[in-house]
Design goal:
Distance between the termini: 33 Å
Strand content: 5-15%
Helix content: over 70%
Radius of gyration: 25 Å
Number of helices: 6
Number of domains: 1
Structural class: mainly alpha
């Protein structure tokens, strides 16, 4: 059976051309306000769900931790050294995760992958 060859002209027409990377400053602003929204606007729903989920998880867990430490002040006064430092440490870690998530989401919303457009 003979081998069919492809002409060089066909290869040039079907090879995608990589254009310059696009930037999205307004998507970055939206994503800074609420992590994940810039990705949703760009159409990257999976990334947007992850960023928004991490942000909501940080907000909910820090709220629960803060409310639980203020709910029963007598318990808080009895165990100041132990409970205070555990809650402060946990809130610090949650805050760092939230800040890193916000920065990563903003940078990701601003940048884009190289857009591939076929030659016509």
């Amino acid at each position: 059976m003979p081998i069919q060859s492809i002409s060089p002209q066909t290869q040039i027409l079907t090879k995608p051309k990589v254009t310059k990377k696009e930037r999205y400053p307004w998507h970055a602003v939206a994503s800074f306000m609420l992590p994940g929204t810039g990705q949703f606007i760009k159409g990257e729903k999976r990334k947007g769900k992850i960023d928004l989920g991490v942000y909501i998880g940080c907000v909910v867990s820090s709220t629960i931790l803060g409310v639980s430490s203020l709910r029963n002040p007598m318990v808080y006064k009895k165990s100041i050294p132990e409970f205070k430092w555990k809650s402060v440490g946990a809130l610090g870690i949650i805050g760092i995760i939230s800040i890193v998530n916000r920065i990563q989401s903003t940078v990701d919303a601003y940048k884009s992958r190289a857009v591939k457009k076929p030659l016509s």
